[in-house]
Every structure is written in C-alpha cells, then in structure tokens.
Amino acid sequence: MLCDGLGCDGFAWRYLLPMLKTNRRVLRWHYRGHGQSGVPPDDNRIGVPYSCADLLSLMDRAELPKAVLFGHSMGTQVALEFHRLYPQRVAGLVLLCGSFGTPLDTWHDHSMMRLVFPYLKRMVERFPSQVRAVTSRAMLTEIAYQLAVRTELNPDLISREDFTPYMHHLSRMHPLYFIRTLDSLKDHSAWDHLPQVNVPTLVVGGEIDRFTPVWLAQRMAEHIPGAEFLFVPGGSHTALLERPGMVNHAVDRFLRQRIDR
C-alpha cells in the first residue's frame, strides 16, 4: 500500500512502483481532497484519523488481510498511526523522507512555520476561492518551479520531468483541503508509538531534506526496534526520485530479506 505525501497524487513512486509491481500486488490510493479522491459532505472530516479509516476500508474492499505500508512524507505519519490502530493489518513499514509527527516544528530545522501557519489557515478558510484562483496559476509558473527545486530539493539530481507532476497536481488541488490536511498533521505524533512497532521497518532519509531533516529519520529508526536506516547522500525530500537506483535496491533487499522470507 503506497501512502502519498501531502498534496501528492503519486508522483514520488515513479521509479519505485515499477520495481515493486514486477512480482507483488501494489495498491496506490489518494487521500481525501487529493488526486482522484473527493471529499465527504462534511469537508472538515480530513486528516490523519480519516486517512487511516479510509486505508482500512480500502484494504477490506481489496481483501487484503495484511500489507506492507509505504509512506512518503505525510505517508510516514499515516503508516505509523495505522500501525498503532490496526497492528494486525501491517506486515511491514517502509518510511521514506518523513517524520513521526509535528512536522511544522522541524521544517527547515526551526519552528517558524508553526508560527506562520495560523495566519495562512485563516486566510485560506476566509477566502478559499480567491486563494485557489491564485494557486491554480502560480503553481504552473517557472518561478514557482525554480523556487521549489532550488530551495527544497537537489537541483543537481531531480529532473523537471519527475517533479512537474507535483506542481501540476498542486495547481488542481483545492488549497482548503491542503490546509486542513496540514492542520491535522501539525499536532499529530507517533513518537510514543515507535517502541511498539513490531514489524520489519526500513527508514529512508535524504541528506539535505529540508521538509523533514535527516536527523528525524535517524532518530525514528533508532527508536523502532530492529529498524534499518538508509542514508541517501545528496537526497532531499524526493530522494526516491533523485537516487532511484540506491533506494530501489535497498527496498528490494529489505523486502526479500525481511518480508518475503
């Protein structure tokens, strides 16, 4: 089961998905308000607990008694919380470029975003149509692309072809659902649950990840019993796109040695 990051509709799995599908059943899904998923009549029912409930329903519908959960970015929090709630449904965890919780406290290694977030949320909630009109155009500009790549990613390793799908999805996504999902993430933490994770776990961290600094990934791996850690040199928040060979090899070995045996 592939659990996306915030504001994503699957772009991060471009190289990992084909490898996984060669001899495994793989399901990729979208959170509420993301990609091809709509939202319930009560559009406040968005966030981590609802994502876990949706994932459980999807596994039941697909008749999957257990699955290895892959989580990129926000998907790490979803995967860990799902294991907390339904440990019997999880066969393993692969946590990529994500945090165990409260990401606004560590974004770019400071808490500035937590201070700014209430003002952003208030603006989006008050003027959703106007904000959407701006973001739908802004996300498709060259300035937005260059700003994202040069401040958050590794411009020497990420290709335009690999990253522009994310920008296109953000341009189509309603900012109200983005901000409400982030609102749920900001106070959620699975830190207390890490010692109770009882399934094989692989944690992947990018050297220059600014969304979720690599020390968070290392700390998470240290507190999950028996977890393995992959350090990706030069990797950012999209390390699985920047060094796909390294990440794919590590994931394939992990699955063969820790899950398939």
Could you describe the 3D structure shown?
The chain is of the alpha/beta class and 261 residues long. It has a single domain (2-259), classed as Rossmann fold (3-Layer(aba) Sandwich), CATH 3.40.50.1820. Helices cover 48% and strands 10% of the residues. It is built from eleven helices and five strands. It has helices at residues 16-21, 48-61, 74-85, 112-126, 128-138, 142-152, 160-172, 175-187, 214-223, 239-242, 244-259; strands at residues 2-3, 67-72, 90-96, 201-206, 228-232. A five-stranded parallel beta sheet has the order 1-2-3-4-5, with helices on both faces. Strand 2 (67-72), helix 3 and strand 3 form a beta-alpha-beta unit. The longest helix is centred in the C-terminal third of the chain and has 16 residues, at 244-259. The model has no long low-confidence stretch (mean pLDDT 97).
What keywords describe this structure?
11 helices
SS summary, helix count: 11
Described by strand count, sense and barrel closure, the largest sheet is:
5 strands, parallel
Q: By helix and strand content, what is the structural category?
A: alpha/beta
Question: Any idea of the CATH class?
Answer: Alpha Beta
Brief account:
This protein is 48% helix and 10% strand. The chain has helices at 16-21, 48-61, 74-85, 112-126, 128-138, 142-152, 160-172, 175-187, 214-223, 239-242, 244-259; strands at residues 2-3, 67-72, 90-96, 201-206, 228-232.
